[in-house]
Structure formats: structure tokens, C-alpha cells
Amino acid sequence: MTIDSKLKAIIDRFDFPGELVECMEIKTGHINRTYRLRFIQSGSAADYVLQRINNYVFKKPWEVMENVQLVTEHLRAAMRARGIDPENRVLKLVRVKTGGAMVEDGEDGFWRAYEFIRHAATIDRIENPGQFRQIGAAFGQFQGMLSDFPIERLHETIPHFHDTRKRVGDFERSVALDVADRAGGVQADIAFIRSRGEAMCRIVDRLKSGELPLRVTHNDTKINNVMLDVETGEALCVIDLDTVMPGSALYDFGDAIRYGASTAAEDETDLDKVSLDMDLFTVFSEGFIANTAARLTDVELKSLPLGALVMTYENALRFLADYLDGDTYYKIDYPAHNLDRARCQCRLLADMEANQDSMYDIVAGLCRRFQ
After folding, report:
1. pLDDT digit string, tens, across residues 254-284
2. Domain 129-370 CATH assignment equals 3.90.1200.10
């Protein structure tokens, strides 16, 4: 086994037990550089995840790590209080030999390590409704167990991340500047975004008024951020906690629906294929509400479908703004990629709007069932 000397020096600063026998880069992520490590101690193997935190995205990585430590400690305590063994169900950081949970390398950034979640894997596509119900249960349990977390202790690691009013203002600046000279060809798309701007600020406004409480939010509730037991399919652990911040529970519910209950990929160009799968919406909602009905307020629970509309709108707005800006933020595979993404999300949003009465009815029925 050959390991780059700089990487080996970083590994050696963590308190890993045993002898390193394997180091493999995991290339599925887009933000952090990630490695899977295997150590042998007394004949037994144990796996770990080593990550370099992207300090271009996260300007204050020490705040990210403080959030992660606070949230994982709270989750472990909450599980124990409910008679659940948190082992293999909550991310567990590996300590640095000199103390703390992060290695700062002057040349190559900031590093942290976790124990690997055993007998588990992630999925990138829903293969059966039961999987999405389990993912809904995992994110619901995450919300439920953190519902009493003292929110003032969390850092806002990416300022204004879901500030829809600011996002709308940024979008209007992109339209006005039109630096890539593209606005003329997308006037219908701009009009679609503009016509919904005020309505899509309802979560931000209700947070500001206090009608919706601030919660610990994951902010990246894609299906591949839940580890599923490889044999039973049971959800074991919510991962990728870098974007944990104060926000609304509606954001986490909504983004999971946007991503997981769509009938098409995020950049589908055949818009006739794009719609909301109401069966998947129902099973995710069931898993989520079963684990939050006793923890979230009635207003939050009954407003969950709004989260799906707002998060779909926000992504459509951001994709279109990036297209107008000349594709400076999102990685693209071809010149119109961001435009196709935006149009796909707009079509999904339109279908959600057409089905929102049914969405609210389903959620209301589940609330009555589990409360």
C-alpha cells in the first residue's frame, strides 16, 4: 500500500487504533475530499472515513465542526434516553491525538475523521417505496430528536442559505446585469420565477414573525445522505452534517420531497416526464410525520407541503440565476445545463402547485393518525 506522504502525515495525527492497511479515495462526493481507511488491531478490522473540509464552501470550518459535535452529542443522548443504542446510528468523530476533532494543515486545509457506519450503504435512486419511507423516518427522527436542541448554540455556517427574499433579490440582480447576455432568450422562465417570488417567501416571513420556530436543520436531505442497512433496508444513520444550521423543519421535508419524489432526474430535458410522484410523497410523509408528530408544532406539521414548493422554487431560481451569471457556481456538463435544470424544477413546481390540495390532505390525515 502506497500513500502520499502528506496524507499519511495527516492520518498519523488522528488517534486511530491499530495499523493502517488500506486507504481508498471515495470520489462520489462533490464538496469534500474523502477517503476510506481500514485499520487492523488484534486481528480485527475497523473502517473509518477521513475528509478534507472544503474551506472554499465553508469559510469557518471550526464552526462547522462545532455544529457537528454539538448535534451528534445531542442525538446520542436523545437515543439513549429513548432506550436506543446509538452505536452505528450516529456519526462518531475520531479524536486528534493532541485533542479536539479537527486537524489543521497549513498547506492543505482542515481534516476530520469518522467511524464508518457498518453493514450499511447509501442509494442514489429509489428502487421501492419502502426505501423512501425509511428515509423519511430517518430525517423525521433527526428532526424529532433535535427538537429540544438549544438553537442559539448553532452557528450559521453559510449565511442566508435559505433566505428566500435574499435569493429573489440576488436573482433580480442577475437578470439586470445579464453578464452572459442570456436573459433575452429566457424571458418566459424569468416571468415564471418572478410570478411566484412573494408566495415563496412565506417560510422566511413566518420564521421572522415567530409563527414557525427555528429548528436544527440538515439542509441537504437527499436520499444518499441516509445510510441503510444492507440486509434489512432499515435506515441507520443520517450523514453529511456539514450544512447543519438553524432553519425550518419545512426545509428538510421539502428538499427531500423535491429530490426523492420527482419522477425525473434534476436535469431532465423532456419536461413531460417531470412530475411529483404522489405515492412517494405519501410514504416519505408517513415516515417523517410518524417521528415528528409529537415533537413539531401543529403549524409546522400542517405546513410541511409548503416546504416542498419553496425548496423546488429556490432551486429553480438558483439554477436560472447561475445560467444568467455564466455558470459560475454549479458544475455543468454542457452550455445549457443550468437552464435545463431550472426548467425541470419549474415544471416540478408547477405539478406540485396542481397537486397541493392533495398534498395538504395527505399530511393532515397523517397528522391525525400519529398525533
Report:
1. 999 999 999 999 999 999 999 999 999 999 9
2. yes
Q: Structural domain boundaries of the chain?
A: 5-61+92-118, 129-370
Which cell goes with 54? 472544503
CATH number 3.30.200 is the correct assignment for the domain at 5-61+92-118: yes
Place of cell 428566500: 164
Distance CA 319, CA 221 (A): 18
Residue 16: Cβ-neighbour burial (10 angstroms; 0-12, 13-18, 19+): buried
Please give the pLDDT value at position 1: 60
Residue 228, pLDDT > 70, answer yes
The answer to whether residues 137 and 177 touch, using CB atoms and an 8 Å cutoff, is: no
Report pLDDT digits (tens) over 70-106.
Answer: 999 999 999 999 999 999 999 999 999 998 999 988 7
**Which are the contacts of 335, defined by CB distance < 8 A and separation ≥ 6?**
327
How many separate helices (H) and strands (E) can be counted in the chain? 11, 10
What is the grid cell recorded at 251? Answer: 426545509
Q: Find the radius of gyration of the CA atoms of the chain.
A: 21
The pLDDT value recorded for residue 105 is 82
Please report which helix (H) or strand (E) contains residue 260, including its range: helix 249-260
Alpha-carbon distance of 36 to 118, in angstroms, equals: 12
Torsion of CA 371, 218, 90, 69, to 10 degrees: -120
pTM metric for this prediction:
0.93
Residue 7's DSSP bridge partners are none
For 244, other C-beta atoms within 10 Å of its C-beta total 24
